[in-house]
Design a protein that fits this description.
Helix 3 links the parallel strand 3 and strand 4. The longest helix has 15 residues. The protein has a 6-stranded parallel β-sheet with strand order 2-1-3-4-6-8, with helices on both faces. Strands 5-7 form a two-stranded parallel sheet. By secondary structure, it is α/β, with parallel strands linked by helices. The protein has one domain: Alpha/Beta hydrolase fold, catalytic domain (Rossmann fold, 3-Layer(aba) Sandwich). The protein is built from 4 helices and 8 strands, in the order E-H-E-H-E-H-E-E-E-E-E-H. About 3% of the residues have low confidence.
Length: 182
Amino acid sequence: MQYECHGFAGLGYPFTAGGTRALEKLIDDLPARAGADHHAYWDADDVARDIINKHSPNKVRIAFFAHSWGVKTGLEACAILDKAGFQVAYFAAIDPTALRARDDPMVIPDNVEYVDEFWSTKGFINFPKWARRNKTGDPGGMCVNPYKVQHKVHHIAAGHIASASHPITRRIIVNKMAEILR
């Protein structure tokens, strides 16, 4: 079995190295067999097309982890893979954000087998009043799950950027990746 594991940084990627460093640290903790790499959020379509060009469906285990705006584009990559017949074994959505409450939500496609969604509880810059709210006004992530994909939400006691490098976030993702690689 072949494996593809990719991380997508958020909208702040060109302006701050914090989110990128967090993804790099996460990759360092992953099992070497994962062969993980990280990308800017705008590369998600290219990553999906590359997977389609390199592999056949059912011959590759795919895992994505994404932070902030990278969650939106990572889920779009999942949708591209879905149209080509590929399953995504795991998607870690780390503090999905960047959408206003009146915008369309980020949809978890039905080709994703399992999602861990991590919500920062301290808001954007460690101020709870700035925490994002979804369409129903609830604080936290903005992913919707119309296909009832197996999905767990974790509340992380950290600000937006720090949620990607929080020890609980990293432990959960590393453990899930080790499970996938067995």
